[in-house]
From TrEMBL:
PANTHER family: HYPOXIA-INDUCIBLE FACTOR 1 ALPHA INHIBITOR-RELATED, HYPOXIA-INDUCIBLE FACTOR 1-ALPHA INHIBITOR. SUPFAM superfamilies: Clavaminate synthase-like. It comes from Roseateles puraquae. Transmembrane segments: none annotated. Residues 193-353 form the JmjC domain. This is JmjC domain-containing protein. It comes from the Bacteria. Pfam families: Cupin_8.
Amino acid sequence: MPLTPIQPAPRPRPAALFELTPDWLQWVAENRLWDCAPATMVDTMVNAGQPPELAAAAVAQMDTDPVFIAARRHQQMLRKLESVCANLQNVWQQAPGYAVVERRSGVSRDEMLTRYVHGCRPVVLTDVAHDWPALRRWSPADLRARFGHLDVDVQVGRNQDALFEQHKASLRQRMKLAAFVDLVLEGGATNDHYLTANDEMLRRPEFMPLLQDIGRMPPLCDPALLHTAASFWFGPAGTRTPLHHDTLMLFHTQVTGRKRWRFVSPLQTPLLYNRMHVYSPIDLDAPDFNRYPRLRDVTVLETVLEPGDTLFLPLGWWHQVTALEMSMSFSYTNFAADVPNQFDYVNPTIGNW
């Protein structure tokens, strides 16, 4: 006959926790999970108007709450996973030249696949785009002459929103491409306006002539799929793409101007406070170690893409991009069928707290 499962002994919730509002209860639990100092937590609660006795009791009793104990158990499993990532990262970093983004020419298909795709390493290919007509043709004047009468969706007002990339849909504004060209030329260095991949203009037949300006593809790419997997970027010096990771691999060719790319290994994701989708709140150009202390252990790689350079961005690598000059660039994900490029991520939706 089946055995009757042993029921756990009842464990009542400590009294002080019942007196907290749900927001305060969550705040205490989250800060204890971050291992914040109890005395500092009590001071914060008192300064916010909580009675000193209640604050002290609630912080002290949280560690005995049954729900919190369950959270601590799951946290142990998460920390094991974090330690696995950290140990693998330490092995990666022992490789000669790890901290330098290689600049290569003449990379074969087999080496591209083995060393950079399977090896998950970023690399700059210096010889892929040397024959592209785009390098000789693309300019603000060329865009205005060929496509200025066409509408494009651009992001405007980015300087007014610290989360401009997450809120890109609300910053979308439609205008003639000629008007945007004038805005870029007359507005100087700024992050306030940018024509990004989100416009998807290269999916429209009227912009197909731009694809005729693309020449030889990198190893692993299928040229026949380019029209389904290409994106165009155009903006002034000063445009920024905040720290994030993509959900697939890509190539990115710089056509005019220069862009600085900064990278962080996907194995260091636990150090980047990734609480919302694929974004990190950290600015690698102005790191706040007081607010984000785990950032001190992050290794940042950096490279500057010159016109004609093609970057391979491997899966999951965090990156932050800044245009050093007025810039046009072209990204593409038209990998051949034998190089799978679809991956699933379970992204957090916590938001920044």
